[in-house]
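Anyone able to model this chain together with pyridoxal-5'-phosphate?
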Amino acid sequence: MIAPGCQFASDNTAGICPEAWEAMAEANQGFHSSYGDDPFTRKACDQLRDLFETDCDVYFVFTGTAANALALASLCQSYHSVIAHQAAHVETDECGAPEFFSNGSKILLASGEAGKCDVVDVQRLITQRKDLHYPKPKVLSVSQSTEFGTIYQPSELQTLWDGVKGHCVHLHMDGARFANAVASLDASPADITWRSGVEVLCFGGTKMGMAMTEAVVFFNKSLSEDFSWRCKQAGQLNSKMRFASAQWHRLLENGLWLKHARHANELAQSLARGLQAIAGVQLLHEVQANAVFAKLTPEVETRLREAGWKFYQFIGGGARFMCSWKTTQADVDALLADAAGFSV
Ligand SMILES: *Cc1c(COP(=O)(O)O)cnc(C)c1O
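re: yes, here you go
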């Protein structure tokens, strides 16, 4: 019997995956140089260069908010602006950190279906004003996977890139759930990043099962000049960096990161199928990664909460269920059995 709880509230309610935990224990032997000058960090950075098939610059920070805010700050002057979807994490969930670290770069909000920026609206934001009273658009930030659990197909990224590249606008990717996107697309990480115009990727470690680490990957190395200083000033230079990089080293070996992401995606599919079969329940977005957004009946929603299930409520009455490396089929079945029972 699975006890209802917060297993579907967020991918962050899961703990640290056993491999990452073991990697930290291994890094805990002996003494090593601090601030990233250690063999674990060198190896993890090389593995990321191999994974992306290019000579990129890699930095490790503690949170996704720091990764996004510092990456965007390195692409913008204070009088520039960043275009992002109106539901983007950088706009809705970072407490103004991108604006703060860039000393005031404004976020301009693009519309678009299913959490994805619409290229026509992006171009409108770029071209509607050229005068110096308007913050000059300098970056397009896209989330992959999106805040609604949807995914930009490679062709959609290419369309966005084609739409902005003539305007000196950089492409930033918030990849807090990049692993889920790669697992779902079965595309090469290089194809859906730098080969599609992405110059900086914030690659999430925490949501895929690591502890307190995100990688900032610069494919355009001219943009990472002084990034180490930016990290240090923001309190994001990890003195015992080996405990972050050892986790990356371990999960990047033998595709473990993708195995965990695939598992989370598959359980989201299973949950979606089960919810769809319940009378009155409606999926709100196509399930392409590890999130399921559903409109439950008021009865089912209330009784699930009363039974102890925790999940976030989204605008329009939707409920969000997240799956992670730790979610099991039994968790999914227990939630579905309750939801089905409460619907009759
Ligand atoms: C979770 C998340 C982040 C990072 O959030 P932190 O809580 O700062 O680690 C960034 N972007 C998206 C889309 C996220 O879901």
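The chain has two domains: 18-255, 256-340.
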